Structure prediction request, 783 residues.
Amino acid sequence: MIPNIILAGVMLVALILYALLGGADFGAGFWDLLCSGPRRDNQRRLIAEAIHPVWETNHVWLILLIVLMFSGFPPAFSSIAIGLAVPMFLILLGIVLRGASYVFRAYSESDERMQLHWGRIFSISSSVTPLFLGIVIGAISCNATFVKGPNQNGLLRTWYQPFPLLVGVLSLSLFAYLAACYLTLDADTDDLKNDFRNRALFSGFISVLAAFATYIVAGSYAQQIRDGLSRTPFAWLIELAAALSALVAYHALWVRRYQRARLASGAQVALIILGWGIAQYPFLVRPEITIFNGAAPSNILVSLETVTALGAVILLPSLLILLLIFKRHRKSLASTGGKTT
Amino acid sequence: MDNLAAARSQMGISLAFHIIFAVIGVALPLMMTIAEWRFRATGDAAYLLLAKRWARGTTILFAVGAVSGTVLSFELGLLWPQFMQYAGAVIGMPFSLEGFAFFTEAIFLGIYLYGWGRIPGWFHLLSGFIVAASGLLSATFVTFVNGWMNTPAGFDLVDGKFVNIHPFTAMLNPASIPEAVHMILAAYTAAGFATAGIHGWLLLRRGRNRFDEVAIAIALSVGSVAVLIQGVSGDALARMVAEKQPMKLASLEGQFKTEQGAPLRIGGLPFPDERETKFAIEIPYGLSLFAFHRPDAVIKGLDQEPSSDWPNVPAVHICFQIMVGCGSLLSVFALFAGWMAWRRPPLSKHAGFIKLLVLFSPLGFVALEAGWMVTELGRQPWIIYHLMRTKDAVTSTPNITVTLGAMTVVYLVLAIMVIRLLWRHVISAPATKELEQSEVLV
Prediction:
């Protein structure tokens, strides 16, 4: 019983980290699509530099999530793979195109047409992938039953519905908001900072609208998860904290305190996902598979957790060294005017 | 095309591409680290340039390999949900460990790329070594999973469900270690010879130069040492297969009849309908010696199982012949190269030798792909040997042909782009400027 909760908790943490790090990368790609105005090229450059050092490591969180799910909760993975094959495949396609086009763009510096072409693919796939990530989250949270077998299931029925689609929009807007908040801090000129501040304010507003719409629609399509939100006082506290961080972030953006905005927006997104996790408990795939009836034997769960803990002991210090080196790298970039060879 | 055929084709195409990226991603960091070590030992700028070039290559391939690896982890579920549902818990351990090895590789690759001049030299070299070692571990863990599909262990089967699972026993199944060693050596062989061949070709085109010479020296050494050990590893793997998967051995040797003192067949074409392998050169008692190290050992033939449970015997047999043939040719070439380097140095002086190197250089990859065809086709019709059939594992989602088409196009584009980028960033002639000033390139 306890190992099931711990493993599910680790998966939730991986999801949160993926949203905070990988999600911001997706969001940055989304803004790449919408770069406009007199500083268009500078905006693109800023986005590329912000992603550059970390993009390879960020997908690891998603891989960790998937691996833990298929090892620890195999029926859930199998059921998602069958029931949500279409959005999963589109996520996959999006990740492939995004990752590959990013490298191809970065390494085609001498060929402008090629760069433009891969840049377009990069930004489109960055924008579409979060939409489908959200759709999958939405679909496993509502009661669209996954019937095994193609005839009853169809390709669309499990996910092409108001609730999952709205969760998709919500995730995209949150990722975009997160990325814009991060980019205000990375920007090197006031004009650029301002560009991304406006984008952050705008996407933050959209995400609040999307959140309300999701909540309302949940009333008719996903009543259970809405009940989950009000089930425990604990959930209320998290919602309250999320709302407070949202206010702090918005205020900080308004008064141009970008460091604070970045922290608060990160906290906001993390708390929203944490709140979702608690409301979803104990389900992995509503309405059938829970972390108890869909789990591998507990000795497997315990050994997975042991390996994860050992891995964390080795990896976290290494990650710190890496981030430290990046910080120095950024500083030297700043001092040389952002040009690398 | 039915769902099973489409799913198998999609998995096959994904794996065939992934294996190329992954193999270079495993071997290139080793060569990159050797180059940096030579630079730190000798101060020769050509080694430094090479280390940086190969680091760029590693980055491109790591990125593409990571992406295509993510594809595979999704496809396991999207194409084979029944397999993952029943086996996920048993084989989750190596997959999780692979995830951590991959993470380590990503982190230290970042440290390596951005650490030039920012961290102490010894630590930089160590980072390169960790990248190489974790790449090796990633490949090992993934191959363990394939080993388990061939020789499943570490559980009891009760009413069609896996119970009493011991994750580490499952991970270290009988096939795992021999198969992983074989795979790692294959990676070094394939990437080593291919890299040496490319630099050989460039050497022929642009004349003798230090950059290509040191590149050939490192790559050819890695490839040659690996291919010579590969012979021993192949023998160990074959004996494991003989003992645990006699039907697989029978199909890769084209052995239809159970026989004492079976001959080793070189070449030939199996005719499953006539239950006979024709046109082969037969070495008496060879197979018994080869598989059990005894001339009178009994080799089980395909006749032990109904022909409906046979794999595609001609395909498996031919791929096996290709793999062994390429491996043998490369081993001979490696010995020849060693002799040349010892008696007639420097190698780059002999245009004939370099031409031969270019000619032989793709054989490692040919052997690698053929070898995977042997192990995957040879296991059919089972996804888990003698436990679960591939057709029972496939997804019920319709229209797999559509995703097959889409992924095939994506992979083709990826392949073309990777080749273009490697061409520009790793292979093309270094400007003399680059050779003179050894600054940070990344």
Observations:
- DSSP finds 13 helices and two strands in chain A.
- Chain A has a mean pLDDT of 83.
- Residues 2-303 of chain A form a domain with the Formate dehydrogenase/DMSO reductase fold fold (CATH 1.20.1630).
- The beta strands of chain A are 283-285, 289-290.
